[in-house]
Amino acid sequence: MAQLSSTGLLAVSLLLLLAAAAAVSGPPSPQYEALECQNVIHALWRNCKQYVQKKGPKQKPSSHCCRTVQVADAHPSCVCDYLGSPDAKEKISMEKVFYVTNQCGVTVPAGCGE
């Protein structure tokens, strides 16, 4: 079983801490939401890139990637907006995104990435 690096563990812990703080403190500010979204996208790209990029074969995601996908599932509008961006459309295979999310037990919302 793959172990989290200290950087990966820190990133996941930070995301969980931010989510808990947001739940307790009421509606987040737009700046906070933008920063949180940026962190979610960065974590997904860092931990799952090899499984969703256009080049390369379709492969089962790692448990580390799945944990990141499951944390990101709390931010569907952020992730879906990114998947619809020109940058994502250039780099990411939506077929692989659906495969990875399915393997990780997460459902992609209808219209996501359009």
Please explain how this structure is put together:
The chain has helices at residues 6-25, 30-52, 63-72, 76-83, 86-91, 94-103. It has a domain at 29-104. Helix content is 68%, strand content 0%. It is mostly helical and 114 residues long. The protein is globular, with a radius of gyration of 14 Å.
How far do the termini sit from each other? Answer: 35 Å
Average pLDDT confidence is: 81
Count of β-strands: 0
In this structure, how is the largest beta sheet organized?
none
Classify the secondary structure makeup into a structural class: mainly alpha
Give the helix level as a range of percent: 55-70%
Strand content: under 5%
Q: Which blocks of ≥5 consecutive residues have pLDDT under 50?
A: none
Shape call: globular
Measured on Cα atoms, how large is the radius of gyration? 14 Å
Number of helices: 6
- Element-level helix/strand string: HHHHHH
Organism: Digitaria exilis
Protein name: Bifunctional inhibitor/plant lipid transfer protein/seed storage helical domain-containing protein
InterPro entries: Bifun_inhib/LTP/seed_sf (IPR036312), Bifunc_inhib/LTP/seed_store (IPR016140)
Pfam family, one: LTP_2
